[in-house]
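Hello forum,

I keep getting stuck at the same step: I have a sequence, I want structure tokens, and every attempt I make locally crashes halfway through. Rather than fight my setup again tonight, could one of you with a working pipeline run this one for me? It's a single chain of 139 residues.
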Amino acid sequence: MEALSEIRVPAKLDHLHTLIDLVSNCAKEQGLSGKRINEIEIATEEALVNIFRYAYQGQEGDVEISCRAEHGKTFIIRIIDAGMAFNPLSLAEPDTTLDISERQIGGVGVFLIRKLMDDVIYRRDGDKNILELVVNIEV
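Reply #2:
Ran it on my machine without issues. Output:
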């Protein structure tokens, strides 16, 4: 399916709101509920902030984000960066039964993304990390 919208910008926090607005507007066009759009915004922000902070290890780099709908059934946000290879799905889920003071630092953002989205897909294609956040469109 063709992208509803896409943009490529430097992987810097300065661009976060622009990217979130793009995703939010695409989700609204698909008729997703306000609650679902909020969840999409949170998951997208978590993924992007991780890229901004860690993907390029202090070097310059870009992030590309696109939105598409497939057959009116799924809404997909694709986030691409050319930073160091990192599969966020390889992280173990944090033990949420532990007291917060006993938990390891990190990994909660990825856990949140996985809980908020209907599916999360990662693949490495050449020098690119490709992360897809999938939302089922309720009819």
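The chain has a mean pLDDT of 88. If your local run keeps crashing, start a new thread with the error log.
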